Queue: 4 jobs
Job 1
Amino acid sequence: MARTATWAHDGKLTLPPQMPLAISLIGFVIVAGLASQFGGFRYVFATFIGLIGGFGLYHAAFGFTAAWRRIVTERRGQGLRAQMMLLAGACLLTFPIIAWGAPFAEWGLRSGAWVLPFGVTAMVGSFIFGMGMQLGGGCGSGTLFTVGGGSSRMLITLAAFIVGSLIGTWNLPAWAGLPRFGSFSFIREFGAFGALGVIFAITGTVYWLSKRIELSAHGSLENRRETGSFLGGPWSHTLGILALVFVSVATILTLGRPWGITSAFALWGAKIATFAGMDVVSWPYWSGGRARSLDRSVFANSTSIMNFGLIFGAMAAASLAGKFAPLLRLSFKDVATAVVGGLLMGYGARLAYGCNIGAYLGGIVSGSMHGWLWAIFAFAGSSIMSKIKVRYSI
């Protein structure tokens, strides 16, 4: 007799392992099929790239939020070192692609970078986002892959993230005119190889410092994660890094720009608000090209289809690992922190060019100074909230 869904005594919904796997594969096929109508093969492949990202993020438990929290509260730096390896590995490939884009265009591939100015607005936004990461329990990518993995709490975070993003699009003009630095590209200033030297120096220094901090606090480094099985997980950080390097590079070559996540949340929120009767199109943020995105299908938005692919990839990974079991018994604290954290992340992302993926990873693999500045202020906000959570048991 086939197994059916059951409720465990702890409030977890236990599903037959093949059910979420089937849902994820069917969902992927549907999204890829709809996306193909608007972007052809490129959009189908973009959906697949998102699938790989979600699969890798879940199995490797690659969390930007946990890594920043642990180095501050536990003096454990394995996650931070994994981030530095990801940045160095991705830049090793993206810098030449961005610097020497012409040959790639001849092969039918694309190249593109986000090199953006950074000022008071982005400082505040990234700081707020960092605080929200720790309250919400995940960053942009972390929210999506944990939702795909069956986390009911992160569904609340995602909903609040979308609302915060919408509020950010409405309120963004109020931040106009504040001081900011001009854009700075390491690739433009130093060339691909010179820029790589700068990146390796920065990531190498952070890597070394995290080891010193951990050794000083504990006398030894934490054991590295080992890969269990490729399909069922868990994955080592190294395998997770390879998957995310693939996503970062493949996104640029396929879509002509770095990987991003949160602009889709703003679009989803605006579409929902428009359906509810709000005059969103009159907001300055949604003027020009963005107004057209409100009229088009969400499957015509490349960031959205990658996000859908990421969710389905994480769902498939959770199913294969036998860990897809949503928990619906949430405490008031769980709900409150999810809501406040999501709102802060959504609002902060709109002020600061995105999240840990679009602004931090996307900026750095573009060779832009703004990616590093975003990381500094987001880490500051994350560190303060991490200590507050420990102090007050939030």
Job 2
Amino acid sequence: MADVAASGTGLLDRHVSFVGALRAAGLPVSMAESLDAGRAAVTIDLLDREQLRAAYAACVVKRAAHRPAFDRLFDLWWPPAIGDGQAYDGDGEGEGEELEEVDPADLDVIRSELRDRLRDVLLSGDDEALRRLAREAVNGLGRADGQPGRQSWFTYRVLRALNPETLMASLLEAVLQGQDRGGLGERVARQMLTERIKQFEEMVESEVRRRLAEDRGAEAIAKTAVKPLVEQVEFLRASRDDLAQLRRQVHPIARRLATRLTAKRRLGRRGRLDVRRTVRASLSSGGVPLTTIFKPHKPHKPELVVLCDVSGSVAAFAHFTVLLAFALREQFAKVRVFAFVDTTDEVTDYFDRGGDVVDALARMSSEADVVWYDGHSDYGHSFEVFAQKWPDAVTPKTSLLVLGDARTNYRAPALPALRSMVRQARHAFWLNPEPRQYWSSGDSAAATYAEVMPMVECRNVAQLQEFVEGLLPV
């Protein structure tokens, strides 16, 4: 921090580079916000790192989901220490230097001493002491020889050597001090100690990233150190943790989608001419219709039909489509949800208001009749079955939403059935989770279906939000 603050030019360059890294990571930082952050940086005490972090976060972070990415990048561009950390300790007695001078044959001694100190620090709950210990552990155990003139740093070497999880038994014994085991006290203590161990592991990871950034540059490390924001995670590659975060993102989007699909047509302030009331009013003026009376607009009662591909090729996207259908079910007065693989079945009853999406997924897997022949996607047969079994599902009041990758396994696309549904619907849209450049490759019939109804690339939440925002004017 001190070397950055010493030069105004260096501070400005670091600021510009940091803002660029935030934008590259997906955080929407405008020019005005960048200027505000720059003004804040020269107003506060630059030697107070947490004050600088708070000032930047107040200016550039708009959503809580963006804070982890911001913190990780902040630690790379505004590190808490330089080198082995002596400058940060401030007393000139950097313990990391002592560890460097120890002969490699004495690593067992170092490991034993660090484990004993880790146990004491975990019991004390001193965050600053835990951070210093993480730095010493990385300096002493995380270093490995790499290319000539370059050192490598590894988190797993430190955690494997210290193995903090194995300290849990002695930690619990020290915390409980003779109390009965297996009760509430032990559960609370175990949770507290687990959180502290996780905090130590995160500090070790952060220290390793800092050392790598010093050797290779913060820009190079940022490319792999920062996970994609939840709105940028592709549905087809989403992990279980990603899907859990997506669930929190889907509900507000579903509300905006419902607002867009139910927006009134802008036909003017008044409805059709009310001839009967206009003639009656003209009697007072000798039959001259001086005053015209119009009928009020009839409120539009929205209906929604959702067709979801739940085949294995789009398993993660199928999970997302279920989340979206579940959220839409809570926003519309009437929603009908249909799932298909190579045939179609209605699953509306699985999405009861206030129900659980996990239960809906379990019921769909065990009860829904979505496999007819071999369990491979067959959009054409699924559309034909839908048109035959539920001919009245799509009406002029209905918005039709198809969710799937349009890969038909080279089977007939059944365009007449789809055209009939699109003609009957008030709105019709197809959300495709595959990149647009793949729509005409292999067994994809996306380009063919796109000629029948509007098809939108929807690979992540950001694209879904863009689709919803541009759907209809408010």
Job 3
Amino acid sequence: MPSIRRGTGWIFLGIALLLHLFTVYAFWHQPDRLAAFTVLPIWVWGGIGLMASVMAFYFLRAPLPLAMTTVWALTLLAGMDEARVLAHFGKQAPQPGVPATHLGEPVVRVLTLNCAGMRFGDPANDIAAWKPDVVLLQDIHPHQLRRFADILYGGKGNFRAHFTRDGGIGVVTRWKIHREIGNPAMRGQQVTVELPCGRQIELVNVYLAPAVTNLRLWRRDAWREHRINRVIHHTEAATMLQLLEQTTRFPNTPVILGGDFNAPATDPVHRRLASHFNNTFTAAGTGWGNTFQRRFPILRIDHVYATRHFTPVRCAVAVTRQSDHRMVVTDLIFP
């Protein structure tokens, strides 16, 4: 019996160690062939690894399983997207109503929401409560945008709609829309808005291809579907950046880019933006940042990015019962 007990303990310890090595490799290098593994949060695999470490300690009663538990805990602390807000302890979150100034500076408030085809109701009033300057909407019927503009800005707002293969998207803003760049093949839209002071900002509304939900990881086709989906996301993101470069002086142009990326915050598609954009939640977010699914949000797939012309000062996720996504609200200084 002692030998069986020790053998079982070593098996659990081996599982914890091998899973740790595989998880670190997969999330650090993010190879496309392992997209099915990394589409789940790292804490899912960390939970399994911690459980295996605890079981190893139960059977072995030795220091090595405790060391493995510590390694897993540190890995999760460093690798969990949800843990990044710990660095923002004490930061102020955006509040409903007219956005407060930051250190005397006025802010630009941006809100993004996937409206889920309005299947859960109309989120216009929930959005209006935040008094945003710019609203990026995905999975919405274009004919509904005028009503959004009327509710948000008392009939004085502006909007532009764009059709994608999987539903309409739209930009609604209190400012004048100077131009719209059309590209029927692009899963997103790009508009130029002019502030009252005469300065212009480029807005890019993102709605990448729907995520793959096949989690039957014991089947080869699940791994293939996730790999193909990631390649599609990379292609779509590259197309949007290429259009920015062709139609503006990017990266010298102020750009706010946001929407539904249908990819977790650790996905490589976000690394493509890192050289020119700040993720506003990563820079200034507070609270639980995951946006999907609304009732039990385990993934942060809705994002707001801004070029270095802006300084993110406040960002948080807000709940609306009128969608299966949560809203991202961010305040930016545009000096």
Job 4
Amino acid sequence: MPPLIALQEVSRIFTSGAKSVTALDRVSFDIQTGSFVSIVGPSGCGKSTLLKILSGLLPATSGAISVNGKPVHEPLENVGMVFQAPVLLKWRSVLGNVLLPVEFAKLDVTGYLDKARALIHLVGLEGFEEMYPHELSGGMQQRASLCRALVTDPQLLLMDEPFGALDAMTRDELDMELLRIWEERKKTVLFVTHSIQEAVFLSDVVLVMSARPGRLLETIVIELPRPRTVEMMSATKFGEYTLKIRSLLSTAGGGQGAATGSTM
């Protein structure tokens, strides 16, 4: 089966005046439909840049990117994005924020109301539809942000450290919630994180990046059974994966950012 996403020798150079910085250097990988893939690496290695290139929001300096076999030259339509900050509009309710992508796509909002409410129920926010962002906890805001990313039923979900700013307990809870939704909705997920443990716990595959300029050090297939449980984190195999990734980052000058990433 052809991959959903294919990157071939993708590089990105940022130029300002006479100065240039190489953020990504000849990155190549494939992602299969329905898989959960995490990217780990130190701060500044180009993880967020990679997501922007994949979504079509930022052009690559060189190399080729394709989604569904089609070259990416402009922003993709069939993609949902979740960022570290929820980025909710403070003057709109939870339901209003969730429906934003529908409005931007100039779709019939009425036809998406039931879907939006079903998603809100799915993430445990039923009863909060008319609340405003300032009335919600950080975890609840991220749940609303996840609903917003899913409301148009995108094939691909790009997540840039979505739970990094949350406390450990809330982060654990949302990781489990995300896995539940992923297993139910069968989306393809590309998830950026600084936490090695989180990457191993969530993923089918972990892409390990070097320090800037970001290069792909290794692609690690996570052969842990699904559904995942918190108890798996104490398993020998889980520890072997985390130690391997930590060793790769340390050997390649990954610095402390990812090597000592937050635990779940």
